[in-house]
Amino acid sequence: MNIKLAGKNNLSHKIARSNLRAISSVVNKYWNKLWKREAPHIFLVIITTITAAIMALPLFYVVYRSLYAGKDRWMRLLDTRIPMLLTNTLSLTLVVTFFAVIIGVLLAFLVERCDLPGKKWWQWLLALPLVVPPYVGAVTYIIVMGPRGWLYKWLGESPFNIYSFWGVAFVLTMFTYPYVFLITSSAIKKMNANYENAARSLGLSTSKILFKVSLPLLRPAIGAGAILVALYVLSDFGAIAMLRYTTFTSAIYYQMGSYDNLSATVLSMVFIILTVGILYLESKTKGKQKFVQLSSSFKQVDTLELKWLKIPGLIFVFSVFSLSFLVPITVLLYWARQGIMAGALDSRFWLYALNSIKVSSIAAIASMILSLPIVYLKSRYPSLYTTVIDKLSYSGYSLPGVIVALGIIFIFNQYIKWLYGSYILISIAYIVRFLPQALQSGESSLSLVSPRIDEGARSLGYSSWKVLFKVILPLIAPGVLAGGALVFVSSLKELPATLILRPPGFDTLAVRVWVDAGESLYHMAAPASLFLILVSLIPLKWMLNKY
Prior knowledge:
The protein is mostly helical. The protein has 23 helices and no strands. It has 2 domains: 40-78 and 342-547, MetI-like fold, CATH 1.10.3720; 80-291, MetI-like fold (Orthogonal Bundle), CATH 1.10.3720. It has helices at 2-34, 42-67, 71-79, 81-113, 119-125, 134-145, 150-155, 165-189, 193-201, 206-235, 238-242, 248-257, 261-287, 310-341, 347-380, 384-393, 401-414, 424-446, 451-459, 464-493, 496-501, 509-518, 522-546. The longest helix has 34 residues, at 347-380. This is Iron(III) transport system permease protein. One of its GO terms (cellular component) is plasma membrane. Belongs to the binding-protein-dependent transport system permease family. The chain crosses the membrane at residues 42-64, 84-109, 121-143, 163-182, 217-242, 262-281, 314-337, 349-372, 392-412, 418-435, 467-489, 521-544.
């Protein structure tokens, strides 16, 4: 009897092993078909999947929660707040994008194509407004143009109402035009003069060449700069709240402040739809813009003489630079001097600086580590899977810090309570928001490394995981570190996510600028603002070298 049972058990084990082998064979077959080349190491896939899921989780959770907000709440908001918020947000985005494009393109053309005096200096100076956080810029213009500001003291009245639609549009334009300026300048440097020469040989005048040849070639670059400006305006919170204007981001923040998180998720859902719609329109427009230049016949474009327009051009360039950088820096230096004399650089200031550096450093280091597998998988193992992972990893970049913080609160408050109320949540929000910056830097560096190096290492028995860390990482380390620097500085300046997620008693420099400026303690806010600006010069140097 025991012999029969043992025989039956052996037979069942054999059948089970046979079934497992068959299943494994089918899984391996479809697994290998998923990749255009050989399959990557499974651990590499697991790490990238977890990272992409974490990046997309706040987005998906906000969408999920908004669907359960209830019909009554949706209808009430659709009838009252949402139309007003849509009007405010879209009108501000369109106006700022329009003027930023006009200013950025004109400056790029004057600096790169014309015989403007000191053009090499202007290439650097006109990019400096990027290091000024718009909420800091808003504070400086409140000091200058506010109801009791410097202009009021000098003139006896305030000729311009900074707390208005045009005040908000002016401030945001001054600190976002460099996106268009930098990208357009880079495109002008790469323009091939042969196209203009061909048009000139056909009898076209300089003005016609500009509008029929040069601008179409620059259109993709201008569009890329415009979409960056539009996304920034959509997601900005600090400057808009400082200037008492209401858009989706500020409305979501104040809705959370009143503990109505479900209404906040409804507003967030509408904002996400709006952002996706803008990105979709941009991708459709971009898809029709395909221009190819042959590097083998490349010729640098000629420098145009400004003649009598040289003085007006200089006045325009200097005016933009003054309004976007000289005025804010002058105001900050004045108040920083007052603050230092009053003892603003005390132990609390350095505690705020240490807190800022701590959470930003965690985000930067984690972003560098997490970006490596995603970049490597996307570059060396292209497939539908890697495309999905890449898109999910970029999802947080198109969302404001308010929505990212909202998603993180829901997730950690319900499922990971032991971390809720910790400063680690701030770093997680920074990673979700700014990991794409590390991805972009890593991708640009990896694109310069030949895949044959990987193939050589794998032929020596290295797995894809070992190839990444032992062969590829040493080669792309400068680009990875540059991406980490970008994440670090962006995290230092991030305001809404920090305001929402910070535990009691944990303040950063960005938070103190917000609080002190809100209480008109400008002498306390100025030193922290200057610290943020000085640190931001690090990635600006990298960007200028890149563009």
